[in-house]
Design goal:
It is built from 7 helices and no strands. By secondary structure, it is mostly helical. It has one domain: Up-down Bundle (Four Helix Bundle (Hemerythrin (Met), subunit A)), CATH 1.20.120. Helix 2 runs antiparallel to helix 3, helix 2 packs antiparallel against helix 7 and helix 3 packs antiparallel against helix 4. The termini are far apart.
Length: 182
């Protein structure tokens, strides 16, 4: 968590947002927040191998959603440094994490290899992979209770806070520029 605050401070320091870049970033941030919320309502971590909802398209919809959000904010910030740093961070953190999680899933869920053969690791399929209904204990439906349990509403609140911080930075920068012109 403390590292997150450091990254946020550096992000805001390097950010050069405009109203246009902030508006355009919504094309990635909104689907990213939606995907994380949608996936959180399906996943039952460590209890079952979830294969329905977004998990029928990609094995890692939560990470994909996080990447969409992060790259959306990199676009809002209009900073190549932030984009390059995020790309490196995702490669260094998420790739080993995904591999480690796959090892765990392979050890605990005998059908994982069959699932992995049908569903890509990160970039989604165009159509959902199909599995027999009996293979999903949850019945394969979205659960608002699961969504609340995973506290995925925090992604929405966090995204809103970042947009507010970027808007404040933009307004303060504009005010400083206008003040120096007087």
């Amino acid at each position: 968590m403390p590292l997150g605050f450091v990254f946020a401070a550096v992000f805001l320091w390097l950010a050069q947002p405009t109203w246009r870049t902030m508006l355009m970033s919504l094309l990635l941030v909104v689907p990213g927040v939606w995907l994380r919320a949608y996936a959180a309502g399906y996943v039952r971590k460590n209890r079952e191998l979830t294969r329905t909802g977004p998990y029928a398209y990609t094995r890692n919809p939560l990470y994909l959603g996080s990447m969409l959000i992060a790259f959306g904010f990199a676009a809002a910030a209009a900073s190549w440094v932030i984009l390059i740093a995020l790309t490196a961070l995702f490669a260094v953190i998420y790739l080993p994490t995904i591999r480690s999680e796959e090892t765990y899933l392979r050890e605990h869920f005998p059908d994982f290899d069959a699932y992995a053969a049908k569903v890509p690791r990160l970039l989604p399929r165009l159509t959902p992979a199909e599995f027999p209904a009996h293979e999903n204990a949850s019945g394969g439906r979205f659960s608002a209770e699961q969504w609340r349990h995973h506290r995925e509403y925090n992604a929405l609140m966090g995204a809103g806070a970042i947009y507010v911080a970027l808007a404040v930075r933009l307004l303060l920068h504009h005010h400083a520029v206008m003040g120096s012109l007087r």
